[in-house]
């Protein structure tokens, strides 16, 4: 597999390119935004797009472009951190279930069942009441939700790989369960995990928006795309622009990620078309 | 770069560990036993979930008694109310009391609303459940036919167009979509109410109308996902040997897909439908806010902000029950649809 | 902004075209943001309870009118003894509760005994502590013995917390309220609405409305849509940011009035560095009130310089005490030993004015070097953290009790202000009945707390109602919480 | 008039030719066979006749059925297929709709062709029991499924039966039965047969005329006996030669016992976590056997007889339920095999495509067992890898390459190299050549024989291929239902089988191609 082969999938190139562009836009906000987003000048609010403020200003006179940049970063950060939690815990769980089997597998499946039984919003509500709303809450809620998703995908993929003779060959060579999981199972389900990760990333961005919208996610003075939508909601009839900008940004990022996921699926392995069907997750 | 997997080899894998011919007739596995086993797992899941909820809520900061009495209440009044609400008992007594109560169907009394929680939850379920069902049905009515059309017209403009539409549908946050729907169909056209809910017994028609817009808002992303899943599943099935067999029998490609493909393609769709219920439940919590529907999600939301612990935990466990029960039912349905699973147990 | 105008215009045009489809009738649907947790105003502090029941289902011996004045209620008249310690009330005749039971002096005695009982769960029990005894003279006469004079006694009797309940029904009032008011409770679809209907045997003048429905819509955008679509006829307090939707729309009328809500930057006076007067003065100088009012209330708030409602006759304009002056703020901070400012937390309850003001204040404070960390919390947690445990640096909250300057005399109150002078003045004020004297004392207290910069004084919340243009009789001001239906009617 | 006439058929995918310039004709009533290895285009040719090629196939040339060109219209073609063609495919498991009962599937075919065929009699005709009609495909054995497929193909009373590798997924005994059934039915109904297989013997047994295909081209065609006895094409000659097994084993002196299996049983609990509802399946039942140093022992038996389970326990992939094994006198129960002892054992898998991790280089895979020997110096490791790959006749430069770069035969050599890298004494070979094309089987077997001779290896071969066993083994063990039922030298055993199973296995042996007497 090389880059040229990947580049033969236009959807992957377009999707990945667009998603990367948004991620970069967010990353730039770490070092530079046109205006600081905490800086409120009420007298300057509701300005339309003009050379000083390319996307205008919001209800507190903050620069919309700066907010979108920073909000994109937050959205990505939340979704990505949640992804790290999901992959970091879910994949080892799934691998352990496949490699050890028996009681370990039973336990992993039951843990997945219980975790899955809690809708992410409910997790978010419970955490928010314990620790207060905020990005961390959103990360945890989405992350916990991601765990069983990755556990199932990893287990399913690893079980298929585990029936391969080279895994038996590894066992013959004296490898233990952990070594089998690390040497043979993990690398061979990596593409499956990457594709699922792309999907979960896009779902994470949507979930962050939803959580921020009901007030459980990102809190001012920080901003996220979901929070911008929330703030603009009641002003939609008067200043629709304030809602359209973050709303469209979310839609575009999610589409970009999904297209990239589809492209990756096609490029990495045609067989994933069938296995990686967990698109409902999220 | 990532390794290419030995895809050919997979085809040759025996279904179980034995010889590659994999051929002995297998004894049927008793279905009742399977159901019993799933039921036990189901109950265990619920119990663990209840324990988690209880532990989390027991840690909650904020005193419901203080909340009820507000900013100027005296310490004595607050303490009196706390005792009255039974917040002084030890944790394990409260937990098992709660569980035992639920088993009897007694969910206790709401701390802030002072009425039986069972009734409160039942009232809210009369909104949330139909709403979820409505969304489920709508998403199937929209998603499945579109998915089938796309699969049948694979690679043609109709397919591309539908899949672009589906991508967009997945990407639009449902609460935002809900608001846009309201603006068009309720505010501008006045075809449907902006929100609110008329109880079923009062006017079933009005109740139904009240659920259409929120149902649509919830259904859009799920319909898009379903359309994609349906399409992929059908395209996959189309490549299977038994479709070729069916064509060899004298069916055209599309006849073969209709007669043999759809039912098989429905298996992955069923899995997704089961998962979707959980997302719809989560989605209702958000959408109920947009349409001021008195659903279970808002009940939990309000109860949390009022620190009504007994209500929160019972309402949460009911949500968890709904999700778990759906997974259970999906399992059973799967067993019904797929005869291969009737003997298996994993 | 150019893009927005056409859309707003289009929406308006559409509405004009379709018109308010609602047939003129004697029914009204009112949108309110918060749903009450229960409907018994004597057993909970939630403002939302009063919004539904006050003066509609329940009545007190006196009632407060829309200007905040005390009017006769269930008591048609009263006499006050010379010493101000004995009040004798003559009750109206022929009053019945909605369940048909009669109302008499025994019910009054029951109500107040219940408020003052050991296990009382009345949120405002403290207000009624001066009552030493309630004596039934005859079925139409009841006598209150006070342990000390109380200038606000008649007002307090008119509050929702002191409405008269019957012993037969008091225990069920939380879910099935039974009072003596012009409207009787019909049903409560929890999470959705409360329906009231005119109580035909009402003792007083019959209201024009026959039915009122309160719809609970917390989301501003949703409420906007509901109003525009005609699903709701009005709301008593609409989020100011979206008022522009209705301001130039002839289908609607916007009622802007006053409330008793002094919005303050609550400051923990007992804690470093806020225990230093210079720090508090610096913060006062750093506040740009007008920007906060514009940003958080879209200009609808009235600036205040102390803890007192501007529409009250005793009000003294003290907004100039510490004018907006960042340089002075920096100088004061340097003098107090914080030349580079300091960091503090700002705990915000879940209300729009607090969350918005918090962001603006954080931005303003940043300019003088004070770095604020905003912490959003639910009411229950806010009550526990801020009010209960006094675990906070700064907070923003509106104090909606009428004439509540007395809280500055309580050193245990959450902002921890301990000034013997104010405490002494408050005691005198409570015992004083002479109007002129009361005004003088009240103004002195206002001045002291303003100069001490106990809290940051921001603005008086405005009441911004949006109603169908054909509705009349709504209260413009909110001297007390409630949406009083009594005078509301449709006009052609 | 020929029933089917193919003229200059070309099939290509994305510009790559899969079948080129193929012309042949099949006469009414004859049995025509196409022989070819994987990728030769034989199946595509069959699909082309039935109009079932994949969408992305580019086709040119003409195919005529009963003198008329195949209709281009999908519906007309479908009806033609339904009435006149019957098809049987290789994998009966995937070729049957898993969600429909057998009877319904057969009934559908009858209904579509309007043949009015009776399902019950069809089921009886293919040797199934009446109650099989009510079963789902997964409830049948492989042979039964293939019989059901045949019944389905017959339901339309077709003129032409196309059988595409109908027996290659079946075990020997079942294969023979199914082939007999096809031959018998064709003869009885006077049906034309197009039989496609890589198995020369099966084709020889069934067909009057054959064509040999290689890389999309028909290299030779003619009367079966003529082609097989006197092949004209070089490729045909090679195939014919490869299909004959020569005995490679020489009588050797055997040393002391190397492996002793003592009363070993293996039971599987089925039913999962909960204790009730469990049933016990005894896969291996008190098996005892001894293999001497330097011996080559073959374990034969039908699928599901427990031979693979036994092998897995011997190599330490699974634990015995009862009994024990000894390697070099040291007792073990399976997975408890200590590393150094493990190094003395190795296993060569059946499927060369799945026996290498696609993400690892050949060198990494080959080096994996080396850590059983403790810490080797990197020079020592390099030497071992070098020796191992040289010993199977491959280039050490291949160590840095990835599995997908190799053909099946090369991979099986590499798998053998991996088995040799620890310089084991006992090598277990699980169907070592059955997944390989006929033409490379001989090479791999020769390699194994050479290695055994050079290194004094002991072999345990698991197989159901009696020819191969006869060629390789010193001693044969016959296994059925978890027990060893007969044992002996191959010559004796096959000449005078005692046990019913051995007799059945012998009977199922297809006659040697040149022995077929038509």
UniProtKB/TrEMBL annotation, chain A:
Every ABC transmembrane type-1 domain range: 72-261
Gene3D superfamilies in UniProt: MetI-like
Residue stretches spanning the membrane: 12-32, 76-100, 107-130, 192-214, 235-260
Similarity section: Belongs to the binding-protein-dependent transport system permease family.
CDD domains (alphabetical): TM_PBP2
Cellular localisation: Cell membrane
Keyword Protein biosynthesis: no
SUPFAM superfamilies referenced in this protein's UniProt entry, alphabetically: MetI-like
Species annotation: Devosia elaeis
GO biological process: transmembrane transport
Gene Ontology cellular-component terms listed: plasma membrane
Pfam families reported for this sequence: BPD_transp_1
Protein name: Peptide ABC transporter permease
Mode of membrane association: Multi-pass membrane protein
Keyword Mitochondrion on entry: no
Keywords: Cell membrane, Membrane, Transmembrane, Transmembrane helix, Transport
Automatic annotation (TrEMBL), chain C:
Location (main, coarse): periplasm
Pfam families: SBP_bac_5
The keyword Glycosyltransferase belongs to this UniProt entry's keyword annotation: no
Organism: Devosia elaeis
Localization in the cell: Periplasm
Claim: Signal is one of the keywords in the record: yes
GO biological-process terms attached to the record: peptide transport
Protein name in the entry: ABC transporter substrate-binding protein
Keywords carried by this UniProt record: Signal
Signal peptide per UniProt: 1-23
GO cellular component: ATP-binding cassette (ABC) transporter complex; outer membrane-bounded periplasmic space
Domain Solute-binding protein family: 70-399
GO molecular function, one term: peptide transmembrane transporter activity
Similarity field: Belongs to the bacterial solute-binding protein 5 family.
Source taxon at top rank: Bacteria
